[in-house]
Amino acid sequence: MFTIVVNYPADLDSLMRWARRLRAAWRASSATGVLCLVGAVALAFTGHGWTAAGVFLLSALCGGAMEGLEVLIEQTEQRTEALRTADRP
């Protein structure tokens, strides 16, 4: 196991921009994973087994990246909510 230390932005606007960027990265990773999966299936049916296995592994890496991004998004949303409630009188 390893630990990633993230320095979150201190103000609400920057934190919300950070959350939008994380969501965009999650969507990009999701799309890339799906394309890799479709490509792996297509390569497998055309007789390129080893290449298909490599592309399938890329799809798995995208899935792992998505899991990590989901954790960061959840933590960012919690921090955003904490800042929103702290700003209220």
Give the helices and strands, then pairings.
Layout: H1 12-45, H2 49-87
Helix pairs in contact: 1-2
Work out the radius of gyration: 18 Å
Q: Which structural class do the helices and strands define?
A: mainly alpha
The average pLDDT value, as a whole number, equals: 85
What shape does the CA trace take? elongated
How many angstroms does the end-to-end distance come to?
A: 41 Å
> What is the strand content?
under 5%
Count of strand segments? 0
Helix content: over 70%
Characterize the main sheet: none
Which runs of at least 5 residues are low in confidence (pLDDT < 50)?
Answer: none
Question: Which sequence of SSEs, written as H and E, runs from N to C?
Answer: HH
Number of helices: 2
What features would you describe in this structure?
The protein contains two helices and no strands. Helices cover about 80% and strands about 0% of the residues. Helix 1 packs antiparallel against helix 2. The longest helix has about 40 residues, at about 50-85. With about 90 residues, it is mainly α.
Essential attributes:
elongated, single chain, 89 residues, mainly alpha
Brief overview:
The protein has 89 residues and is mostly helical. The protein contains two helices and no strands. The longest helix has 39 residues.
